[in-house]
Write a structure and sequence with these properties.
The chain has a five-stranded antiparallel sheet with strand order 2-9-8-5-6. It has a four-stranded antiparallel sheet with strand order 1-3-4-7, with no helix packed on it. It starts with a helix and ends with a strand. It is of the alpha+beta class. Helix 2 runs antiparallel to helix 3.
Length: about 270
């Protein structure tokens, strides 16, 4: 290969590497691989400085081919600037389409130790797209051999629609058993005074209270549902728990459907057996 061709190949290698690094960084940003994107962009920036420095050095070596080197130098600069613009456009698109979560800047309140991050199952309703249970943290304390308390916090993806209220519904999974061998009832328990209120970030918190519904519930796995109750249907919910049976044995899915309840999802909360 002629010396000039070898020099041109070397001259193009760094700018092309710069462009490739910034394109990879742009792809990483779009796919939410933030650490990889900044590593690739930083690598591209270093290569860009090296490429420009080498071009300036080559331009000072002599008049031979200086015109072609200068022309190639401008193309190299254009490639580097193009790579930076591609990366910048990807960052801007990422922010517009999926803005940085405010959860990181403003974390939700956490319960006291010991804290467990709950497995969350989301069931976003068709009537309210985008509204779902995003996360939940909880703390269980076993006060005596057969009693326990729960403190819990979480985050909803967006604010509650007008005319709706947010409430917890607690349900013991029938496939699990308490310390006496009794299975969970699978029914829902609701209380009017347990309304969940959200802050501007969709965060919520419920202070520590008795958990399990009865002495000896340890060993059961509970599903801590979060659901919408239409404000106009509060009287319907009140009627469900106005009787001794409704208060002690809870409600089934049909009861809640008649009162217009819409579940957003639930947190899995297992409890330690005796």
């Amino acid at each position: 290969m002629p010396m000039g061709s070898s020099g041109n190949a070397r001259g193009w290698a760094l700018p092309l590497a710069v462009l490739t690094s910034f394109v990879l960084a742009a792809v990483a940003v779009l796919f939410n691989l933030e650490v990889m994107s900044w590593v690739a962009a930083g690598f591209g920036a270093v290569l860009g400085v090296v490429a420009l420095f080498k071009r300036e050095t080559s331009a000072e070596e002599g008049p031979v081919g200086s015109g072609s080197r200068l022309s190639a130098g401008w193309v190299q600069k254009a490639l580097i600037v193009g790579g930076v613009l591609i990366f910048g456009a990807a960052v801007a698109l990422r922010i517009i389409v999926n803005p940085v979560s405010s959860e990181a800047a403003t974390p939700c309140a956490e319960p006291s130790d010991p804290i467990t991050r709950a497995k969350v199952t989301s069931t976003p309703p068709a009537a309210h797209p985008g509204l779902e249970l995003k996360s939940a943290l909880y703390s269980i304390k076993y006060n005596r051999a057969d009693s326990m308390t729960l403190e819990i916090s979480g985050q909803i993806t967006t604010q509650v629609p007008d005319g709706q209220l947010l409430y917890p519904f607690k349900r013991a999974e029938p496939g699990t058993r308490d310390h006496k061998g009794n299975p969970g009832s699978g029914r829902f328990f609701w209380g009017r005074d347990a309304e969940i209120t959200l802050d501007q970030n969709g965060c919520w918190y419920q202070q520590r209270s008795n958990f399990g519904g009865y002495s000896g519930a340890r060993g059961l796995t509970f599903y801590y549902y979060v659901g919408l109750v239409p404000r106009a249907q509060l009287s319907c919910m009140d009627r469900l728990v106005s009787t001794k049976a409704g208060k002690e044995h809870g409600q089934d899915t049909d009861d809640l459907t008649r009162c217009g309840v819409t579940m957003l999802g639930y947190a899995h909360i297992p409890t330690d057996p005796l």
